[in-house]
Amino acid sequence: TRTYSIAVIPGDGIGKEIVPPAQAVLEKATKGLVNFDYETFDLGAERYLRDGSTLPDEELNRIKNKDAILLGAVGDPRIKAGIIERGLLLKLRFALDQYVNLRPSKLFEGVTSPLANPGKIDFVVVREGTEGLYVGAGGAIRRGTPHEVATEVSINTAFGVERVVRYAFALAMKRRRHVTLVHKKNVLTNAGDMWQRIVDAVAKEFPEVTTDYQHVDAATIFIVTDPSRFDVILTDNLFGDIITDEAGAVVGGVGYSASGNINASNEYPSMFEPIHGSAPDIAGKGIANPTAAILSTALMLRHLGFDDPADRIETAVEADIKESATAKRSTAEVGSDILARL
Ligand code: IPM
Ligand code: MN
Recorded E.C. number(s) (predicted)? Predict the structure, then answer.
């Protein structure tokens, strides 16, 4: 049994509470099969408030040498928006070249969707993770004057788009073989046209995969009116950010939504995190639901090549949700209920 070294970043608020049950599930599901060696990193809003650092080089370099990263949640209302986001979370995604932001949405049996007729919802958003409007290209001049100019430039490279497009098609081959490109090519004619051409070219190599296209505004409608039409949704960084929150809502809330920030070429570690945030309003009470964090460990195992324990974790979570989704349980209770099913 090989040992995998994992960087654990519990982060802030409920992040600290949901990571331990996730680690316990990971341990039990892989007992005798994989060894994990954890190193916990004190990063996040609290660290920033204490010493002003978000992600020092020395810690980034140590993280770079891990096999994977498990992240709870980061953020704190006391800190100006953007500091932790850019200084820690996005810095990790960019520095570790995590170009696939993988976000599955599945409506589990036992969970109430806000949709009257949800049907069967089971799709995955493949969100580009290192380009687009998130790169921070642009700037501000004449700041604070009436003539202030602020620009945010969306960067889309053929290289960056092609690699995420290929990932989406390969993933579709393992699923229902359908890829929907979501963009806004009627207005963003430069980037949209390039995305579409690259999709068309890659599609030729995957004759079994059917493809279609939706403008992002239309896609937000179909996600609530006909979500079962989707299998793999492929989109850029910002559109993907927005539609995955909507996707989380239609499957009963982001409390069930896991995600992977994946460097599919395995040059650097990939990072697995629940989609939800640090939830300062319920932090410290021991009532946060660890399900999304637990599902994130399954994504991590799949990425590391361990499909069996990943399947077992997902099966245990599905059974737990089916039986107890509406029960009032503490973080520890949900964790031990899922553990007991493994
Ligand atoms: C997410 C979050 C982040 C994003 C923020 C916190 C930078 O909303 O993971 O979806 O925009 O990607
Ligand atoms: Mn988001």
Answer: 1.1.1.85
